[in-house]
């Protein structure tokens, strides 16, 4: 997820030993364009190895790698699943390095929003004709759509979760905020702005803020992207494939987000807050509401609460017991709610050489094994994430999970307004939008947060870059 757990230091030695790539197994000279679908494969008993580059998807995920590989081989005796562990900090760099070298792993875990980029590089493998009907029918329809681009299917989703906000129940109630009503009905920007003002408290010379969001580094675009969806811009392109962030709503959003800092509801030093510091501030009572928050944060808070109660020295220093409450992001300028969903999954890759039909079928078996059944049930329960396959739901039925029912209902409400997938956006447009985001939006927004760039200046910079990328007729003009 774009929800990053701590690195497991013990994987380093194994990582060094397992740098392998799928293009070494069962390949032949390419006869079809890179990324195109091959004919469906028949079952084979030949020995084969499938490689996978996997980060710590959940707190206990990497601890299960040995068992996952054993269970896969027990199901398919002729196949070996060779896993290369990686941290969240370096998995993208490792994957990009291997892709650029033309020798990616067979399977890599990552965000579905990265699919257009890898399609453009020609090494993502379309499994449309190889995935069996049983595999496809196991899935809820909505999350599977996120792994598609055009008519191609490029892997299997692991989960569909909401990028929400998280609140401290005690602080919310002290500020007079009816959090159950917010969970059910949502809130407007004005209501949210007033609420977080009430959450600002100074005690013993220390300030507790109403709202803190991680914005240091690439996290800045998470904040902006989540809020933009609720400001009438659910995607970077509208239905007519015009670039959306040149809309007047975008300028209004930038002004609104800057106002939260100017109000004193967020720290003036917000630009220095990364994901780790954001969570530390929440657990130590320095903020009433935090973002972005995934369902797993409730689990993390409960784990820390237990450590505090047991006087365990590994609890976060100076932390307090926290009852974590899931909250939706506010809506802006009269827009309808459009919850930011995160669909991460197991993308399927190919090397420079076209894989044999047998190897392609084996890769699909491995990707589906990781994304469904017991593996998915165990991982998603660890994350407090919703199950998106029937096979995982069945396996999870007997797994105990301690989760606040109000939070479950809140997530379900947000999923009803989930931003839909857009497989109609051409990969070349998506790639240009990602480039514009990286080179213009992220640095300008970080400047805006730091007080070095005005909303108007950032808007004009984005508009100028958008015209250069998509043409004067390729942008929204309102």
UniProtKB/TrEMBL annotation:
Recorded coiled-coil stretches: none
Gene3D superfamilies with a match to the protein in the record: Periplasmic binding protein-like II
Statement: the UniProt record of this protein carries the keyword Acyltransferase: no
SUPFAM superfamilies: Periplasmic binding protein-like II (SSF53850)
Key words, A-Z: Signal
Key word Signal present: yes
Signal peptide limits: 1-22
Highest taxon of source: Bacteria
PROSITE patterns registered for this protein in UniProt: PROKAR_LIPOPROTEIN (PS51257)
Listed Pfam families: SBP_bac_1 (PF01547)
Protein name: ABC transporter substrate-binding protein
């Amino acid at each position: 997820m774009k929800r990053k757990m701590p690195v497991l230091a013990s994987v380093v030695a194994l990582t060094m030993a397992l740098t392998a790539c799928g293009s070494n197994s069962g390949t032949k000279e390419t006869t079809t364009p890179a990324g195109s679908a091959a004919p469906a494969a028949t079952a084979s008993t030949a020995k084969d190895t499938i490689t996978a580059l996997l980060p710590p998807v959940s707190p206990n995920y990497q601890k299960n790698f040995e068992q996952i590989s054993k269970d896969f081989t027990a199901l398919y005796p002729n196949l070996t699943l060779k896993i290369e562990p990686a941290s969240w900090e370096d998995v993208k760099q490792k994957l990009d390095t291997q892709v650029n070298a033309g020798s990616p792993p067979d399977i890599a875990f990552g965000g579905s929003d990265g699919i257009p980029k890898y399609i453009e590089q020609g090494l993502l493998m379309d499994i449309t004709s190889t995935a069996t009907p049983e595999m496809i029918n196991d899935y809820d329809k909505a999350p599977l759509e996120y792994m598609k681009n055009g008519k191609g299917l490029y892997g299997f989703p692991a989960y569909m979760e909401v990028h929400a906000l998280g609140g401290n129940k005690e602080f919310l109630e002290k500020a007079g905020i009816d959090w159950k009503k917010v969970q059910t009905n949502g809130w407007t920007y004005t209501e949210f702005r007033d609420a977080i003002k009430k959450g600002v408290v100074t005690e013993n010379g220390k300030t507790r803020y109403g709202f803190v969001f991680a914005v240091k580094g690439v996290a800045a675009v998470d904040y902006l992207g989540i809020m933009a969806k609720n400001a009438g811009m659910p995607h970077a392109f509208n239905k007519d494939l015009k670039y959306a962030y040149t809309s007047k709503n975008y300028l209004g959003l930038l002004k609104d987000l800057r106002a939260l800092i100017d109000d004193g509801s967020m720290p003036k030093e917000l630009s220095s807050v990364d994901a780790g510091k954001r969570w530390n501030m929440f657990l130590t009572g320095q903020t009433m509401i935090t973002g972005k928050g995934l369902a797993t944060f409730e689990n993390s808070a409960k784990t820390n609460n237990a450590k505090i109660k047991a006087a365990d020295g590994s609890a976060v220093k100076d932390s307090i017991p926290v009852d974590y409450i899931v909250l939706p992001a506010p809506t802006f300028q009269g827009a309808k709610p459009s919850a930011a969903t995160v669909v991460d999954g197991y993308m399927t890759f190919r090397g420079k050489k076209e894989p044999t039909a047998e190897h392609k079928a084996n890769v699909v078996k491995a990707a589906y094994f990781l994304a469904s059944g017991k593996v998915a049930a165990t991982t998603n329960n660890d994350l407090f994430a919703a199950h998106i396959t029937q096979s995982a739901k069945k396996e999870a039925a007997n797994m105990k999970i301690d989760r606040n029912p109000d939070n479950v209902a809140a997530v379900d409400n947000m999923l009803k307004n989930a931003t839909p997938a857009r497989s109609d956006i051409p990969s070349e447009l998506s790639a240009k939008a990602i480039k514009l985001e990286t080179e213009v939006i992220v640095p300008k927004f970080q400047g805006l947060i730091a007080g070095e760039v005005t909303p108007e200046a950032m808007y004009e910079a984005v508009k100028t870059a958008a015209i250069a990328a998509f043409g004067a007729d390729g942008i929204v003009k309102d």
